C-alpha cells in the first residue's frame, strides 16, 4: 500500500495530488474529532458559549499570524526567539496581574494621598487588562534580543536564554509573593480558553489584523530579507528595519496567543506549521499558504479536542500539530 | 565618469584596518578581477562598494547614472539558502525588489524583467523548480539572473566558483564573459581561482590591505607568475 501511495504521489502531476493528499489528511484530522455524531452535537452545544466563540476567533487569527511569521523565523534560524519571548510574556503577565493587589492603603504612607490614589487606580487598570503592559514589555524585549544577538560579544541563543529565564524567575518570584502558585498561574503556563475577556478579544483581533496587514504589505521585501540578507541590503532594503518589524510582530503574536496556548507552549504555534509544511512543499508561497491552513485547522481541532476532553487547550493543539507533522513527514518521505 | 569611485578608502573592524587607503575607479563595461590571500580585504572591499560596510574614512561615489541600490551582487552562498523552500522564479523575482518603490507587490513589468533575465541565464525551463534541488552551477546561474534583475550596468561577484566542479566553473566564466562582452555589463569579481578568473580580466587588482598591484593581466602574470603556478 505504501508503494501504491508512493506511486500515486510520484513525479508527474505530483503537485495537485500532493495538495489533495495533504488536504485530505487535514480533513481526516478534523473529522476524527467531529466524526462521531454525539461529539458533534456536544460541540454544537459548546459553540453556543461565548467563551468558546471568543477562543475560536482569537485562536484562528493568532494561528494565522503565527504560521506566517513562523516560516520566516524558522528559515532565519530565529525559532528560539519565540520561546524566549513567551517566557518574558509570562513574567510580565504575572507582574501585571499582581498589581491588582496594590491599593491606596498598602502603598508607603510618606507618598502624597493624591499620588497613592492615582497609582492604585493605575495598577487596578493594568491588572484588569494585563495584556497591554505585557505587550509593551515583550515588544521592548524583542528589540533588545535582536540587538543582543547581533553584538558579537554574546551569542544570540545564549542572550535569549539569559533574558527568558530571568523573566521566568521574576514571574515566579512575584507570583509566589503575591498570591502563591495557584490556578491562575497554571492557566498562564498551560493555556486556557476561559482566559479571554471581551476587552482582550477586541485587542487581540485588532493586533492580529495589524500583523496580517503588515505581513501582506511587506511580502516581497520579507522574502528578500529572509532568503538573502546581504543581497537585500545591497539592493537598498533596510534589513535592520525588517528584522525589527518581524521581531515586533512576533512579540505581538506571542502576547495575543499565550492566553490560549499557555506561555510554555505558544512557541510551538510558531514553529510547528512551518516545519510541517516544509516537509512537503518546496516553494515559498506554497509553504506560506500550507502553514496558514495547517495552523488554523490544527488550532481549531485542538480547541475542540480540549472542549470535549477537558484537557488544557495548549497541550491539545500541540498534540494535533504533532500528528499533522508526522502525516506530512510521511507524505514527504513517500514522495522522496 | 567612473561607475564606482573609491577615494582613500579605509575600513576597520574593532580598530584593526582591513582595507587601507584604497583608490580605485570601476569603469563602465570593464572586467576587473580582485585577488589576494585570505584576510587581504578583497571581500571587504566589495562589500564596501555595495554599502554593506561603512568605510572609516575616505569616499565611495557612484556615477555615470549608477545608483547605489542598482548594483547586481552575487554573494557567497549561505547555509540558510541551501535548504530554503523557494522556486527559481521566486528567487529571481526577488532581484527586482529595488524597483518596487512604494508598491506592495511585483507587477507585470517586474515579472517580464525576471523572465527576460531567466532566458539570458538559460534557467527559464527551471522556473517552477525548487531552488534547493538544483546543482551548484544552476544555482549560481539563478542567482546571477537575480543580480541582473537589480542592475543593468555592474555586477559584483564574491568568489562565484567556490564549491563548483571544474566544468561548472568553466561554464560560469563563459556566462560572465558573455555578459561583459555582449551586454556591456561591468564585472568586479573577487576570486581565489587565479587561472580561470585572470584569463578573462581586463584589469587585475591584487589586494593586501592596500592595493598591491593594479594593471593588465599580462603584467600581473609576469610579476606574480611563480605564485600563480604554485
Model description:
The complex is a heterodimer of chains A (336) and B (230). Chain A has 336 residues and is mainly α. Chain A has a single domain (2-335), classed as ABC transporter involved in vitamin B12 uptake, BtuC, CATH 1.10.3470.10. Helices cover 81% and strands 0% of the residues of chain A. Chain A has helices at 2-8, 14-34, 37-46, 50-75, 79-98, 113-128, 131-150, 156-178, 183-190, 198-217, 219-227, 229-234, 239-261, 266-280, 284-309, 313-335. The longest helix of chain A is centred in the N-terminal third of the chain and has 26 residues, at 50-75. Chain A is globular. The mean pLDDT of chain A is 83. Chain B is α/β, with parallel strands linked by helices and 230 residues long. Chain B has a domain at 76-150. Chain B is built from 8 helices and 9 strands. Chain B has helices at residues 42-49, 79-82, 88-93, 108-120, 136-150, 166-183, 194-200, 217-229, and strands spanning 4-13, 16-26, 31-35, 57-62, 72-74, 154-158, 186-190, 203-208, 210-215. In chain B, the strands form 2 sheets. In chain B, strands 5-6-7-3-8-9 form a 6-stranded mixed sheet, with helices on both faces. In chain B, strands 2-1-4 form a 3-stranded antiparallel sheet, covered by helices on one side. In chain B, strand 8 (203-208) and strand 9 (210-215) form a beta hairpin. The longest helix of chain B is centred in the C-terminal third of the chain and has 18 residues, at 166-183. The mean pLDDT of chain B is 89. The A-B interface holds A 75-77, 216-221, 223-224, 226-228, 230-237, 278, 281-287 and B 47, 50-52, 68-71, 73, 75, 78, 80-81, 84-87, 90-91, 93-95, 97-98, 100, 104-106, 128, 130, 132-133, 146-147, 150, 156.
Give me the secondary-structure topology:
The complex is a heterodimer of chains A (336) and B (230).
Chain A: H1 2-8, H2 14-34, H3 37-46, H4 50-75, H5 79-98, H6 113-128, H7 131-150, H8 156-178, H9 183-190, H10 198-217, H11 219-227, H12 229-234, H13 239-261, H14 266-280, H15 284-309, H16 313-335
Chain B: E1 4-13, E2 16-26, E3 31-35, H1 42-49, E4 57-62, E5 72-74, H2 79-82, H3 88-93, H4 108-120, H5 136-150, E6 154-158, H6 166-183, E7 186-190, H7 194-200, E8 203-208, E9 210-215, H8 217-229
Parallel strand pairs in B: 3-7, 3-8, 5-6, 6-7
Antiparallel strand pairs in B: 1-2, 1-4, 8-9
Amino acid at each position: 500500500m505504501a508503494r501504491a501511495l508512493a506511486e500515486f504521489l510520484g513525479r508527474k502531476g505530483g503537485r495537485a495530488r500532493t495538495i489533495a493528499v495533504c488536504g485530505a489528511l487535514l480533513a481526516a484530522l478534523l473529522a476524527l474529532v467531529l466524526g462521531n455524531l454525539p461529539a458533534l452535537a456536544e460541540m454544537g452545544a459548546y459553540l453556543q458559549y461565548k467563551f468558546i466563540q471568543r477562543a475560536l476567533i482569537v485562536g484562528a487569527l493568532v494561528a494565522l499570524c503565527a504560521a506566517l511569521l513562523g516560516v520566516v523565523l524558522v528559515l532565519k534560524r530565529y525559532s528560539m526567539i519565540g520561546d524566549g519571548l513567551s517566557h518574558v510574556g509570562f513574567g510580565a503577565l504575572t507582574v501585571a496581574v499582581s498589581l491588582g493587589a496594590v491599593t491606596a492603603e498598602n502603598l508607603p504612607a510618606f507618598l502624597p494621598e493624591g499620588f497613592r490614589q492615582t497609582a492604585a487606580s493605575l495598577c487596578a487598570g493594568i491588572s484588569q487588562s494585563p495584556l497591554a503592559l505585557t505587550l509593551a514589555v515583550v515588544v521592548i524585549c524583542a528589540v533588545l534580543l535582536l540587538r543582543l544577538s547581533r553584538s558579537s560579544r554574546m551569542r544570540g541563543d545564549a542572550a535569549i536564554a539569559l533574558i527568558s529565564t530571568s523573566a521566568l524567575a521574576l514571574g515566579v518570584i512575584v507570583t509566589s509573593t503575591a498570591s502563591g502558585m495557584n490556578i491562575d498561574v497554571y492557566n498562564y503556563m498551560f493555556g486556557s480558553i476561559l482566559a479571554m475577556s471581551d476587552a482582550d478579544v477586541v485587542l487581540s483581533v485588532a493586533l492580529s489584523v495589524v500583523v496580517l496587514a503588515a505581513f501582506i504589505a511587506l511580502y516581497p521585501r520579507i522574502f528578500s530579507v529572509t532568503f538573502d540578507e546581504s543581497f537585500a541590503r545591497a539592493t537598498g532594503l533596510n534589513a535592520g528595519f525588517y528584522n525589527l518589524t518581524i521581531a515586533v510582530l512576533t512579540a505581538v503574536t506571542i502576547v495575543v496567543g499565550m492566553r490560549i496556548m499557555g506561555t510554555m507552549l505558544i512557541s510551538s504555534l510558531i514553529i510547528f506549521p512551518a516545519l510541517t509544511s516544509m516537509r512537503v512543499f518546496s516553494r515559498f508561497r506554497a509553504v506560506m499558504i500550507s502553514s496558514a491552513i495547517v495552523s488554523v485547522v490544527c488550532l481549531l481541532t485542538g480547541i475542540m479536542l480540549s472542549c470535549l476532553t477537558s484537557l488544557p487547550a495548549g497541550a491539545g493543539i500541540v498534540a494535533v500539530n504533532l500528528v499533522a507533522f508526522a502525516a506530512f513527514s510521511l507524505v514527504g518521505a513517500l514522495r522522496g | 565618469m567612473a561607475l564606482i569611485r573609491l577615494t582613500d578608502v579605509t575600513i576597520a573592524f574593532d580598530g584593526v584596518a582591513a582595507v587601507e587607503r584604497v583608490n580605485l575607479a570601476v569603469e563602465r563595461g570593464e572586467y576587473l578581477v580582485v585577488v589576494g590571500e585570505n584576510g587581504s580585504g578583497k571581500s571587504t572591499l566589495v562589500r564596501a562598494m555595495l554599502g554593506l560596510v561603512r568605510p572609516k574614512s575616505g569616499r565611495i561615489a557612484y556615477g555615470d547614472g549608477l545608483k547605489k541600490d542598482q548594483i547586481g551582487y552575487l554573494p557567497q552562498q549561505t547555509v540558510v539558502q541551501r535548504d530554503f523552500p523557494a522556486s527559481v522564479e521566486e528567487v529571481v523575482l526577488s532581484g527586482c525588489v529595488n524597483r518596487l518603490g512604494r508598491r506592495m507587490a511585483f507587477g507585470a513589468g517586474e515579472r517580464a524583467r525576471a523572465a527576460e533575465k531567466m532566458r539570458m541565464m538559460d534557467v527559464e525551463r527551471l522556473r517552477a523548480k525548487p531552488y534547493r534541488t538544483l546543482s551548484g552551477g544552476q544555482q549560481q546561474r539563478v542567482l546571477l539572473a537575480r543580480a541582473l534583475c537589480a542592475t543593468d550596468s555592474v555586477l559584483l561577484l564574491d568568489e562565484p566558483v567556490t564549491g563548483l566542479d571544474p566544468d561548472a566553473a568553466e561554464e560560469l566564466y563563459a556566462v560572465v564573459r558573455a555578459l561583459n562582452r555582449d551586454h556591456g555589463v561591468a564585472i568586479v569579481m573577487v576570486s581565489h581561482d587565479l587561472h580561470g578568473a585572470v584569463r578573462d580580466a581586463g584589469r587585475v587588482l591584487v589586494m593586501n590591505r592596500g592595493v598591491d598591484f593594479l594593471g593588465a593581466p599580462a603584467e600581473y602574470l609576469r610579476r606574480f607568475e611563480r605564485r600563480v603556478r604554485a
